[in-house]
Amino acid sequence: MAKNASDEMLGMAQQEMEYRVELYNKLTHSCFDKCIEKKFKDSDLNVAENSCVDRCVYKYWQVTAIIGQLLNSMDWGAMLDVSPIRRDPLVYCTNGVHSPGGVSFVSETA
Predict the structure, then answer these.
(1) Number of domains in the chain
(2) Which residues lie closer than 8 Å to 50 by C-beta, 6 or more apart?
(3) 22-78 pLDDT, tens per residue?
């Protein structure tokens, strides 16, 4: 039993890491496209680019935090009309890994 719990925790940690890497990659791509000149004149960022990147990253994390809070505060069971009486092919579960707000859907047939 402890082995299954350990494997599950390892799988959740791996999924969390994948989510964070994806989030970092999106942030990097978005802020780079927005702030960095396409003609690389210098080896370092200029003051305007550096300031833009700082603001972009700050705003990105603010928005991500706000969206996460909103998703966590939502009543997903009511929104999805999931009840013990009604059986859907989708099983509602919360594990905090698969998506912002921790909602994932797993097929019962899988």
Answers:
(1) 1
(2) none
(3) 999 999 999 999 999 888 888 888 999 999 999 999 999 999 899 989 888 887 666
| Cα distance between residue 19 and residue 92, in whole Å | 20
CA distance 2 to 8: 10
Question: Helix 47-73 crosses helix 2-35 at what angle (to 10 degrees)?
Answer: 140
Q: Return the closest-CA partner of residue 16 out of 100, 107, 110, 73.
A: 100
Instruction: Return d(Cα 99, Cα 106) in angstroms, integer.
Output: 13
Query: Domain span at residue 102?
Result: 2-107
Residue 17 belongs to a domain with what CATH number?
Answer: 1.10.287.810
pTM here is 0.55
